[in-house]
Specification:
Helix 2 links the parallel strand 1 and strand 2. Helix 14 packs antiparallel against helix 15. The chain has 15 helices and eleven strands. The chain has a six-stranded mixed beta sheet with strand order 7-6-8-5-9-11. The chain has two domains: about 170 residues, D-Maltodextrin-Binding Protein, domain 2, CATH 3.40.190.170; about 100 residues, D-Maltodextrin-Binding Protein, domain 2. The longest helix has 25 residues. The protein is globular and about 60 Å long.
């Protein structure tokens, strides 16, 4: 009995001891909250890294733009605002040309996983992508889920139905809309709900999740599935100075988790898409899909602008046309 009491007392004392400090502590900054799919993936990744390094690497997160922004995140990370961060070179105003412009070349793709696979292969094949992000090492990639058309009054059932519509759209989508008789309108997404409510615009190009996250299901009656593909891009990075402080084995753990973080982010994004569609159905939104030939014809309208982008990159001494060719070959099943 005395031995049992002694062991119990020892166990209690050990439990009360403070946890051993990590060998390395790094900060991680994200413009998203932990509740967002990207933030949720990050939180799982942070716990996974701690476990796989036996607690030797501790990552302290700072959520919701408390340290870093979306548009300037790449520069902020390179400058050391945080050791690690969510980055989005696609939102940069200039620079990072291959990373910023190549994602638009994935027009016509309908499966995000296909986009991610092709993009990561190209990223490994062409050093220029990494060279543009001097001052950091990439730890993960994002791929956007396709966006479609949310409409107030009636569905789009053929490309002819686009004529005369005013659609809130990203700049990249204005050309294809115009080619089919619609007017693309740029405005902040935060202003789109009242614009739909008042009939200032007839619709918006957005993903399923926006039906719930932005409450668009309250002001649209139809969701017409005409894919507006979104490409992939490097989305998490570590400052080179922080990277160089880590031993080889911890660096390897981070690199071994690049694919895991990329795929987990996609999985959680797709769960949010499913939840958005379910919410739309609850609110009475009617869903329809255009014929495959109409989707293919619409996708062709993206080609001229992307060919110009490729030539622009060529003029900078970068492999724009070569990469565009490989992306289109992959889309046709030849890569």
């Amino acid at each position: 009995m005395k031995l049992v009491s002694t062991l119990t007392a020892l166990a209690t004392a050990l439990t009360a001891l403070p946890a051993l400090a990590a060998d390395f502590t790094l900060t991680y900054a994200s413009p998203y909250t932990e509740a967002h799919p990207y933030g949720a993936a990050d939180a799982e990744w942070i716990a996974r890294i701690a476990e796989q390094t036996d607690g030797r690497l501790e990552i302290t997160p700072y959520w919701g733009r408390s340290l870093i922004t979306s548009r300037e995140g790449v520069d902020e990370l390179a400058a050391g605002v945080a050791d690690m961060a969510y980055i989005a070179p696609i939102y940069a105003r200039s620079g990072y040309d291959m990373n910023r412009l190549v994602p638009g070349m994935f027009y016509g793709y309908t499966e995000p996983k296909d986009v991610l696979d092709v993009y990561m292969k190209l990223w490994g094949e062409y050093p220029v992508f990494a060279e543009e992000l001097e001052g950091m090492k990439v730890l993960g990639y994002n791929v956007g889920t396709p966006m479609h058309m949310l409409l107030r009054e009636k569905p789009v059932e053929s490309l002819d139905d686009l004529k005369g519509l005013r659609i809130r759209a990203a700049v990249d989508f204005i050309g294809p809309l115009a080619a089919h008789g619609a007017e693309g309108v740029t405005m902040p997404m935060t202003e789109t709900y009242p614009a739909l409510e008042k009939g200032v615009v007839d619709g918006v190009i957005a993903p399923y999740e926006a039906l719930k996250s932005l409450s668009f299901a309250e002001v649209v009656g139809y969701y017409s599935e005409l894919p507006h593909s979104r490409g992939a891009y490097p989305s998490r990075g570590i400052n080179t100075a922080a990277w160089d402080k880590l031993p080889d084995d911890i660096q390897q753990v981070l690199m071994d988790n690049v694919e895991w973080l990329s795929l987990r982010t996609l999985e959680l994004s797709q769960e949010a898409e499913a939840a958005g569609r379910a919410y739309g159905e609850e609110k009475g939104v009617v869903f329809n899909s255009l014929p495959e030939e109409a989707k293919a014809e619409y996708a062709k309208a993206f080609a001229p602008a992307m060919e110009e982008v490729a030539k622009e990159l060529d003029g900078m001494g970068k492999p724009g046309s070569e990469v565009l060719g490989k992306i289109r070959e992959a889309h046709d099943g030849a890569m």
